# Entry
Amino acid sequence: MTELTETLRHAVPADGEPVRMLPAEAYTSDAVLAWELRHLFAGSWTCLGREDELLPMPADAKPTTQRAVRVGDVSAMLVRDGATLRMFANTCRHRGHELLPEDGTSERRSVLCPYHAWTYDMQGQLIQAPGFREQETFVAEDHALVELPVVSWGGWLFGHAVHPVGSPEVPSFTEHVGEFDRLIAPYRSERLVLADRHSYEVAANWKVVAENYHECYHCPLIHPELCQVSYPDSGDNYDLPGNFIGGSMTLRGGMQSMTLDGALAATRIPDVPEDLVYYLHLMPNILVSAHPDYVMAHRLVPLAPGRTWIECSWFVLPGEDGSVPSATGAVEFWDITNRQDWGACESVQRGLASPHFRPGPFAPNEDAVSLLVSTIGRAYANGGL
# Structure
């Protein structure tokens, strides 16, 4: 992998040179994706999903207290102990058996390894190791689970899985979100509820999907519905503190939201801009599109160099009686737009496989894509974000 990342360092231009797409291997190589999963996903702050879905606490059933998740290429386990949330490496300290299977859950009040019944409390301390009771040299405290950093923000959980809790090498989550927090906080996404969700599997690299998200240079050709309600050349892209990329676009006059007819799809969110939409990508894997009446989020999970699983969710204000509006107008509009985008991304991925592909320059209004590529290129050179 060292030799390959040396090659990719050339993707970072000297000052003043035009920024081009990354070399083809950045989008097609198994080795590059393996590096990204460890250094950009596990080694940064990966969005794991919504907290209330990962560890639900239903009123009429036992709460889920444990769930296996994947943070980049690292298997981890979320644990809720009362009001306290923790994350541990999903690895028994005996012989490495997974404590929970992939996507597995538990309602137990202790963590049980299903291989040899080593048992841990909800703080990760070893409380039972069959056969070791009489071993004077065995110290249970030396075999606690490895605790990993996890943060709840805006209703989502974010995990880091390379360095344990307490390590000075853990990157600051506050610095990671930076000004993204100021831009999105007014939408109070932690109080919004899920109106609908679509999942897609796209035959394209996760970076191709992200690059497509960051420009509307393509909009006049493939998004006629979008251009009816929003100016494709409007808005501004930001260069602000934090590991995020993106900007805003302006709604056309008389348009209230991004729907096929420009009408609101849900109750207007108070105290947020009424005439623009934020399109912000918090690295590495969550795209947050904040509208006047709903927040849409795309969560990207790379499956292979040329395959990405995408969870698209629409969040809205609940009704006064707790009911959840359907947001049908938003869902219909963005499902059409998503599928248009996925088709374009899949075509790019096929083109990247050509022996004749050479990285091309970005247009002036692709400055957010340029910033994304520069950010990833620097990460290749520096070992992470």
The chain is about 25% helix and 25% strand. The chain has a mean pLDDT of 94.
